[in-house]
Amino acid sequence: MRRTAPPFFSAACSMEEATRTTSLFSVQIVCEEGKAMCGLEAGLRELARARLHGFSPQELRIAAAKQLAEAEQLFVERDQTYCTSLRDELVGHFLRGELVVGAEEEARLSKSCTERMTCADLHEYADKLRINRSCVIRAMEGRAATREDDISAAVATIQAEEDAGEITENAMFKVPENLIEKDGLMTAGSIVDERTFPNLGFTVVGLANGMRVAMKTTNFLDDQVLVRCFARGGMSEVSRAEHLDSLYANTIASELGMYGFKPEVLHDIMAGKRCEMSAKTGTYTRRVDGDTSPTDIESGLQLLHILFTSDVSRMLVPEELEAVLRMQEQAIRNRRRDPASVYNETIRHLVYGRTFQSKPLQVRDVRRMKPSEACRHFNANFSDPAEFTVVLVGAFDEGKVRPMLEKYLGSIPPPKVPRPRITEVKPVPFTFPAGVINKDLRVPMVEPMSMASITFPVNIPNPDYDTHLKTVPAVTLEGSAALTKEKLLCVFASSIIERRLLALLRFKFGEIYTCSAGTSFAYQDPAARGATLRGDVMINFSCDPSAGHRLAELAMEDVRAMQRDGPTAEEVATAVEVETRALEVRLQENAYWREYYEALHNSRLVPLMGGDLDALFAVTERVRGELMRGLTPEMIQAHMQRCLKADNRVVVVLRPQRPLWQRLCLPSPVTPEGLAVLTCVGAAVMVLLRHATRRA
C-alpha cells in the first residue's frame, strides 16, 4: 500500500539477459531528488524481507494470475504473431542462444511452470538476492550528490536491521474480489434505438440514458477488443483562471484513484485480467481509451461505469496528495534537465503563439493548482452519459455484449446538476507568429548532439466561408470535400519533403542521424468555421552539434525549390505507393477503425447527411481514392504555393552548451548570455578608457 511519506515514487523489477550464460535480476527505483539513499535503503529492505520471510500465498496468486493472462493471450493469438516479434526472437536465438519453440509451445510451457510454482520456490530464489553475490549498485542523478561512502552506509544500515531482526513480514491487506458488488448497480437501462452502417461495418445502439455505443466485430487479433469512450469539449472550454486545475485533473485522479479504488488496490483486483483503461482530456475532446481481451470486456465496462459514478474527491488524502505533488514537481525538474523535453516544449510554445495553453509548466505551477478544483473538473468531465459515445472494435460476440451494455453503461445515471451540452467546441485562440523566428537553444548535454526543427504555417482557404458575413453560413458537401483534398495534399507534400531531405542531408552530405516531416491540424477547430483551415508542417532532424544551423538552411533551400519547381513524377509515385501499402496495413488494425469512426462521428458533415455515416464514409474514400489515382507533381506544387508560406516560419536549433570558460572568454553575440557578457566587457572597457583619459 502507498505510504503517506513514501521513500520513492516508483519501483520495478526485471530479468535481463547479460550473456548467453548469465541472467541479471534488476531492481529500478525512482525517487525524489536528494533522496537517493532513502530509496536505496527501501529497495534493499524489501529484498531482505523477501529473503527472510518469502512471499505470501496472496502475493503468489496475484503474480501467477498476471503471468497466466499473458500466456493465454500468447496462445489465443499464436497464429497472428507480428513479424517483428518473430524477428526479435530469431535474433535473440542467434546472439544469445535463446530457445525459439513457437508461440503455442511457449504459452504451454509458461502456463505449466506458473501453475507448479510454490511459495517455497520463490523463497529459494529470493535467498540468492544478496549484496555479496556480484551485486552492482548504480545511482543516476541530475546533479551528482551520492558518494560511494553513502552507498556503503545504506548497505550497512539494512544489514544491521536484518541482523537485529527488525525487518518483519509485510502486512497483508484485503483485496476485493469484485469491482462492483451485486447491490452496487442501479436498474439496468435498455437499448432504445439501433442503426446499422453495413459499408462501415458498425452497428450503433442508443441507451435510455442517452449514451450511444458503436460496435464493429473483426478477426484481426483474436485476443483484442479496443474501447474508446469520447465526447466533445476539452481544455479549450476552460478559462485561463481554471487552466491549471483542469490540466492536472487527470493526473490527480489517476494517482489517487479514478475508479473508486487506490491504484495499487485496483492493480491487484485486475490481476489475471487483460483489461486496461485510461482517461484523458484533450484540446477538443474527452476520452477513455481501453484495450481488453474478449473474455474481459465485462471488466472494462465495469470500469467505465465506476468512472462515471464515483467521486474522485473522496480519494483526496492530504498525506498521499503531498507525495503526488512532490512527484509532479520532480517530473518538471527532470524535464528541465532533459534536452529533448526543453526542445519540444519550446517549439510548441513558439509555434502556437505563446498562449497560456502552450506555455511550459513551471515547478511553482504545481502548488498553484487547487486539488479540490482539479477533482471537480474531473468529475464534471465524466459525469453525463448522454454526452458520450462508446466504440468497441475487435473480436467479440455482439450478442453477448449487448446485455452487458444495458447492465453497466445503461445504468449510469444522469448528473444531479446537468451542465449545458457542448454542440460546438470553443476554438483555441492560437496564432502562428508573423515573419521568421529563430531560436537557438543551448542546454547541458551528456552526449553532445544537435536537433533542429523548421515549422511552417498551413492556411487552407475555406470554400464555405462568407467574406461578407465573416462566418460559415452553411456547410456544404463540396466545400468539405475540397478541404479534405487539401489536407491530403499537405500530407503527401510532407511525405515527399521527408524523402527529399533524407536523400539530401543523409545520403549526400551524411550529416544527419534522423529526419522527419509531418503535418498537423491538431489545434484547428474541428468545425472549421474560420476563413482558413489552419495547421502546420514541421521538419525535424538530429545531427552533429556543429551542423544544426547550416543543415536548417539547406532544408529551407530544398523546400523553396520544391515550391518553385515542384516534385518529380517519380517522387509523387513513390509517395502514393508508400501510402497505399501503409493503408493496406492499417485496414487490418483495430485501432484504425476506432479512430476512423470517431473522425466520422465528429465530422462537420454529419448533420448535413442526416447522420448517415455510410454515405460520409463513401465520400471520404472517394475523395482519397480519386486524389491518389490522379495525383500529379503540379497538384503538389500548386498546393504548396497556395497554402504553405515558406517566408513565415519558426526555426529552433538545439545545441550543447559550451563550457563556462568558453562562454566567458569567447561569448556568442546571438545568445542572451553572450550579449550580457559582451555588454559587461564593453562597459568595463568604457570605464577604463574614461579613467585613462582623466589621468592623461
What percent strand? Answer: 15-25%
Total helices: the number is: 23
| CA-based gyration radius | 29 Å
CATH architecture of the largest domain: 2-Layer Sandwich
CATH uppermost class of the largest domain: Alpha Beta
Task: Give a verbal description of the structure.
It is built from 23 helices and 14 strands. It is α+β, with helices and mostly antiparallel strands and 696 residues long. The protein folds into 4 domains: 10-163, Cytochrome Bc1 Complex, Chain A, domain 1 (2-Layer Sandwich); 186-409, 2-Layer Sandwich (Cytochrome Bc1 Complex, Chain A, domain 1); 436-653, Cytochrome Bc1 Complex, Chain A, domain 1 (2-Layer Sandwich); 658-695. The strands form 3 sheets. Strands 3-4-5-9-6-8-7 form a 7-stranded mixed sheet, sandwiched between helices. β3 and β4 (202-207) form a beta hairpin.
Fill in the keyword field for this structure.
about 700 residues; Cytochrome Bc1 Complex, Chain A, domain 1; five-stranded mixed sheet; Metalloenz_LuxS/M16; single chain; 4 domains; 23 helices
List the helices and strands and how they pair.
Elements: E1 10-17, E2 23-30, H1 36-53, H2 57-76, H3 83-96, H4 103-116, H5 119-126, H6 148-163, E3 191-197, E4 202-207, E5 212-217, E6 225-232, H7 243-247, H8 249-256, H9 263-269, E7 275-281, E8 285-292, H10 297-309, H11 318-337, H12 339-351, H13 363-368, H14 371-381, E9 389-394, H15 398-409, E10 436-443, E11 450-461, H16 477-508, E12 512-520, E13 532-543, H17 548-565, H18 569-586, H19 590-601, H20 613-630, H21 633-643, E14 649-656, H22 660-665, H23 672-695
Parallel strand pairs: 5-9, 10-14
Antiparallel strand pairs: 1-2, 3-4, 4-5, 6-8, 6-9, 7-8, 11-13, 11-14, 12-13
Helix pairs in contact: 1-5, 1-6, 2-4, 8-14, 10-15, 16-17, 16-18, 16-20, 16-21, 17-21
